[in-house]
Structure formats: C-alpha cells, structure tokens
Amino acid sequence: MIEPVVNAMSIYQVKKQSQLSLIDYFRQEHGSYTTEAFLSAQCNFVQSCTGYCLVCYLLQVKDRHNGNILLDAECHIIHIDFGFILSSSPRNLGFETSADHRVCGCNGWPRWEKVVQIVEIMQQGSQLPCFHGSSTICDLKERFHMSITEEQLQLLVEQMVDGSMRSITTKLYDGFQYLTNGIM
C-alpha cells in the first residue's frame, strides 16, 4: 500500500538541508525554548515518538533510520516503510533494538488481546514473510509482559532503553546506513 505523506520531510533531509541538530532545527523553525510554538512542536514530537516507539517495539518494526522517519510541519514524527515487521528483518538482521523509549511507560501498553487477534487473523493464509515462523505469535505475546507488575514493567522499560542507547549493533546499523545510503 502506498500513501503520500504531504508537508513532511525525512529527518535525514531535515538534517542534511539545515545542517543543524534536531533541537537547533526546532529552535530555528519554532522559536526559543520558551515560546508556545516551540513547546507545542516539542510536545508533538515527544507524543508521536512515544507512540511509534511502543508500536515499533511490540510489532518489532525494523529498518528504522532517519530516511524512514518523517517530520511534519508541526513536528509530529511519521514512520514510513513497514516492510520488515514481526519475524522478518532486512537481510535477516534481527538485532535492531533502538525502538524502545522510556517515556512510553507502562500505561501505554495497548489491549494486548486485540493486537494478538489482529495479527493472528492477518497470519492466516498470508504469504508475507513477517508472518512465517512458528514463534511469531508467542514472541508477540511475550513482548507485552502481561505477567509482571506495573513496577517491574517500568523497570524493564528503563532497562530496555538503557540497553538500546548502549547497543553496539544499533550504532553499527546506523553506520551501515550512512556508508551504503548516505543517511545520517
């Protein structure tokens, strides 16, 4: 399925064209840190990032890089290219871990039963590689961590974020994207 996304640029394009860090780009486009426009843009960015982080973790969306993440005029992030989800990954590289986000918190977990049911329905008769694999549904259920307490889940989310930030494989994948595609 293809749908055009208007009034948005990839984060790669934003960084390349502006030659600024993302925070400096926000200040350039929306004013100083204390302006209503900047605070609104910052809020839009954080809220949309949190939602996408949760979805990317649960559905194991892969091939995330600055060329696949758009930024609209109000600073919402919009992910594109969902070719690798669940049990499929580019070139069978299943190590991307940078999709976790501390701000997601535990209150962001959606109703896991409905998500699992939707994936099970989509899996029936599908030829898509992401649905092939005997453990796809089991792994999906495990990512919801429904058997642990709220406090344990919060600690787990924090550990996942810390691990993601230190992940050598994420740094290597970012370097690979830069070397092969010029994506910063």
TrEMBL record:
The keyword Kinase applies. GO terms for molecular function: 1-phosphatidylinositol 4-kinase activity. Keywords: Kinase, Transferase. InterPro entries: Kinase-like_dom_sf, PI3/4_kinase, PI3/4_kinase_cat_dom, PI3/4_kinase_cat_sf. One of its GO terms (cellular component) is cytoplasm. Belongs to the PI3/PI4-kinase family. Type III PI4K subfamily. This is PI3K/PI4K catalytic domain-containing protein. It comes from Microcebus murinus (Gray mouse lemur).
